[in-house]
Amino acid sequence: MNNKSFSFKQFTIEQEKSAMKVGVDGVMLGAWIDVANASNILDIGTGTGLIAIMTAQRNSIASIDAVEIERQSYEQAVANVNNCKWKERINVIHEKFQTFAQTTQKRYDLIVSNPPYFIASLQSPEMQRTVARHSTLLTQDDLISGINKILTDTGKFAAIFPYIEANIFIAKAAAQNLFCNKKTNIKPNPQKPVKRIMLEFSRTKQSLMENIICIETGERHDYTDGYKRLTKDFYLKF
Question: How far is CA 97 from each of CA 173, 198, 216, rounded to the nearest angstrom?
């Protein structure tokens, strides 16, 4: 990988203009979400367009909208989409999610986001990166409110958060009748604590399905079988 581009098995992400580069969080979420029965998919805060393109690879019929507020990331996402084989099914929109949720007439059966999630941490002095990483311009409350407006009755919302922010979001979402039914805890290796959590929500409360995935075995760049299985359709090295 370099700062300018990242090559996957079926597409390449150019990322020089985007504040948030291709990372483990986005790749894991894009590979993890359940896209099987989705017809209309929304990617909130698409950045480079990575997750939108991953969902198009995994679901051969869905129409995918990808919303991005930051201008340079939006332009990068448009270029990446136009260079992928699924460009006819992906529409990149330069708009604030709160505005999009209030004005769109569409309803989605799958909404996904690798959101700006750090609530109380120190903010980056670079504004572009702050917008991408922190909830300054998209709070958890705004995210939940918008999802509730445009998610179908049987739809699902999936996202990835750091450990603390994940548990805050679960509680806030439940108060607005969005229930966490699936949770995958992510550990860097078996000896480390959980750093990230992937979550799936729906409007119907069900028995929680929960598991753990470790990225590495404990040795640097020695990846676990579980991580390889999850991402093998994308990473060149697997």
Answer: 17, 21, 35
Give per-residue pLDDT as tens, 134-163.
345 789 999 999 999 999 999 999 999 999
**For residue 213, what are the domain limits?**
122-230
**Residue 222 located in a structural domain:** yes
Range list of H helices, the chain? 24-32, 50-58, 71-82, 97-103, 127-133, 140-150, 163-175, 225-231
- Which residues lie across from 160 on neighbouring strands? 198
pLDDT, one tens digit per residue, over 114-134 is 987 645 444 444 444 444 443
CATH number at residue 207: 3.40.50.150
Number of domains composing the chain: 1
On whether residue 221 sits in a domain, the answer given is: yes
pTM over 0.85: yes
Contacts of 219 (CB under 8 A, 6+ apart): none
Strands 12-14 and 5-7 come out as antiparallel
